[in-house]
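Need tokens for this chain, all 383 residues.
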Amino acid sequence: MKRLVKLMSLTLTGALLASSLVGCGQNGSGSKDSDVIKIGGIAPLTGDVAVYGVAANNGAKLAIEEINANGGILGKQIQYIDYDDKGDTTEAVNAYKKLVNNDKVEAIIGAVTSKPTLAITPLAAKDGIPMISPTATALDVTSAGSNIFRTCFIDPYQGENMARFAIENLNATKAAVLYNTADDYSIGVAEAFKNQFEASGGEIVSFEGYGADEKDYKAILTNVKGQNPDVLFLPDYYNTVGLIAQQVKEVGINATLLGADGWDGVLAVAPEAAEGAYFCNHYSTDDSSEEVQNFLKAYKDKYNEEPVSFAALGYDTVKILAAAIEKAGTTDYDAVVNALTETNITTVTGTITYDENRNPIKDVAIIRIENGQNKLYTKINPQ
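Here are the structure tokens for all 383 residues:
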């Protein structure tokens, strides 16, 4: 009987110990005895928005290579495990579960576009794992939990700053806005621009939506032409913007074209139609700062192409996370999250601190398209 009691006691002790170890694994210390720190990545590597996901993922991998070459974090190498969400919410959720439950990662970088990111934020909030999206700009991304951050500025921030720029720098008094009614990003930036432009004393003479599959915008543009706006704001992704910009010229609208960060890449599809336009972005390859120029050289050497803003944001996200882990001195979830809230780091896309909603406070780069090139026109300080 005593032997049976002793055996049961040992079994119970072992079970409690195993449970304790599982709990530790779920709070970012599962690899404390490992030679690596596992970081998970979620991005669209195939599908309609793969151009953004590949760029962000490439930037992240470049930063990890540099950190590992310099000794890693806390004396350990980073192991980066990435999954393709295909720009789909279900795929993003599946990727998140694999990373957390199977791969036992210490932090999540991702997702890239807003809808997949919003799909996984409730899961990350419940688990408490540090999560940073490089590029999801939708306002609600960080609202799910205090452990969720982002590296990019938010949709309203872009719209508001472009409205101020139109009035203060271009002396615009009348603006037209065309936006994609099926895209949260386009809607959010458009509404922020409209509200700020009117609040600053300007007049919105046309606020028109179009469908996601639209190809012919001439009817809408003809209406816009009749309103004679000073500026035409087009907050959408560059492929759509390229189509609209070409038809703007065909219709004969003389307004200055304005856009947001989704324009990055428009020169590949409509360089002539976009000539003279302005758009806001997270950084400019024309920036002479040491951080930007070093990043440009390293990225071009590795990938043989010029990095778009999504690549820079992926790169910066890893640097922010690595600095936080180093500061925390551990991969414990809570300690890393606390360190992230105290971020103050100079990166490729600017000097970054976080506000109370874990959104970055940093400069906005205003890009002007001149002679088929993106040129840094000015930087707008946070307001």
